[in-house]
Design brief:
The chain is an alpha/beta fold and 171 residues long. 25% of the residues lie in helices and 9% in strands.
Length: 171
């Protein structure tokens, strides 16, 4: 059931209050990451996160491996990222919300990647996870929804038809 008013689309920022009120059908990604502590983001996710959120790792999901020619976080392989996003339920119609706990510094990467891939319905949670907690919501502690390529449905690979285009619908 779509709880959004027809035509409502969030493309830049979304408040914690709006996410609480309208976000039941949104696809939410926790992008918390720390450059000096690569495992800390997943650790914090496991300690608590917005209910229903998936965790995406800066090092393994949002970047490619570092090479002698690349910078610290080269762009990810877009086919792999596309499969990751499809695994979480992202379609062309899905409203996506991304957050971190660093004023959007880490979440902005996924926001940009999705926009670059042609997905317009993506917004950064204004104030991130701290704003969610300040709004009176509690962080959910649950089974990890960290997406692992080894556990993904291999049939999803069949729907990847072009490396730079986000598939609009799951076959």
């Amino acid at each position: 059931m779509n709880r959004l008013r027809k035509g409502t689309m969030y493309q830049t920022l979304i408040s914690a209050q709006v996410l609480q009120k309208e976000g039941q059908d949104f696809i939410i990604f926790d992008c918390r990451s720390y450059l000096t502590e690569p495992d800390k983001g997943l650790q914090l996710y496991r300690e608590g996160h917005i209910p229903g959120a998936f965790f995406l790792d800066m090092e393994s999901d949002l970047s490619s491996p570092v090479t002698p020619e690349s910078g610290r976080h080269p762009l990810p392989d877009f086919e792999r990222l596309q499969v990751t996003l499809l695994s979480a339920g992202v379609t062309g119609q899905a409203q996506v919300v991304v957050y971190d706990d660093m004023a959007g510094a880490m979440a902005a990467r996924l926001w940009w990647l999705l926009r670059y891939m042609g997905h317009e319905k993506v917004a950064v949670l204004d104030g991130g996870y701290p704003a969610w907690l300040e709004a009176g919501e509690v962080g959910k502690v649950s089974e990890s929804k960290a997406l692992d390529l080894l556990e993904r449905d291999p049939a999803l690979w069949a729907v990847v038809v072009a490396p730079w285009v986000l598939i609009q619908e799951r076959a």
